[in-house]
Amino acid sequence: xxxxxxxxxxxxxxxxxxxxxxxxxxxxxxxxxxxxxxxxxxxxxxxxxxxxxxxxxxxxxxxxxxxxxxxxxxxxxxxxxxxxxxxxxxxxxxxxxxxxxxxxxxxxxxxxxxxxxxxxxxxxxxxxxxxxxxxxxxxxxxxxxxxxxxxxxxxxxxxxxxxxxxxxxxxxxxxxxxxxxxxxxxxxxxxxxxxxxxxxxxxxxxxxxxxxxxxxxxxxxxxxxxxxxxxxxxxxxxxxxxxxxxxxxxxxxxxxxxxxxxxxxxxxxxxxxxxxxxxxxxxxxxxxxxxxxxxxxxxxxxxxxxxxxxxxxxxxxxxxxxxxxxxxxxxxxxxxxxxxxxxxxxxxxxxxxxxxxxxxxxxxxxxxxxxxxxxxx
Length: 377
What we know:
The protein has helices spanning 5-10, 20-33, 36-47, 51-55, 60-73, 77-87, 92-102, 138-151, 181-185, 230-233, 363-370, and strands spanning 107-111, 114-118, 126-127, 152-157, 160-169, 172-175, 193-197, 200-201, 207-208, 211-214, 222-226, 249-253, 289-293, 301-305, 309-312, 319-321, 333-335, 341-348, 358-362. It folds into two domains: 5-102; 138-373, Thrombin, subunit H. The protein is elongated and about 70 Å long. It contains eleven helices and 19 strands. Helix 5 crosses helix 6 and helix 6 (77-87) runs antiparallel to helix 7 (92-102). By secondary structure, the protein is α+β, with helices and mostly antiparallel strands.
């Protein structure tokens, strides 16, 4: 179950979580002041969520506990308290709980050369309005962008661009399983696959056609793989919960270690590769997310949304976000603002007329599978 796009966009401020006794306080207030019908209406109208879908069966006491835990586990229980208070502002218990748990977090303010903390009404000459968006070092950020651009490739089957991939080792490219489904089914077609690096539009508007690199020969080209769910292939991603063996990735070995070679000239440094994190980096609601991609088979580009991450699903196998993609973006790397790899992009909302999300696979799950194949360190 995902938080809806509406719900994720509704919340503001830093996340918070309650202790067990505090969860009990909020649960008791819900049981004392809401009926089950009230809760059905409350969660649907306020959060675009169906009460039954969130917490299943049971008596009101049990279901209220599950509701609070659902919000608390996502770090957004303060918003549940605030909305409950708005509905029951005349009730003393909600007046108290709103002051305790529903208040917006303090804002960090910068004044002169010191940093102070003030409440929402605090004043200073400068303010960090969005604490989740830190101020970045331009040189480091531009270096990370240039490295990411050089390490991303377009994946072609024969003359047809099929998706995007990126280097995770000197001769290893990560992309989606579904980008290469036909080749995985008929391995002899692997000789027609090319990974095209440096296909980009230059500052003067001309397009650099890039460098096509073949896959390794024989059966050594497919190092590891994991399919998507059948429901995802059928454009019904909500139908089943993906398992840990349904991560929609293919790890490919190239015919040459392009990552160890210079990007352009003999004097340039090696291209390098995107480091895979040892543990899953945070995927906070509202977090920024950058996708470096070949959208619609075009030269390498990136899309950035500073309020992107919508939610992670219940078992942590998928993450949804608002950063834009196009056909051909499948297999793209998703980064945070420090160019840390977060996820492997793999699909968009099947409701293409009015899409609400794009979706990726958290990279930590894939790293657990492929780390034995990656270079040490």
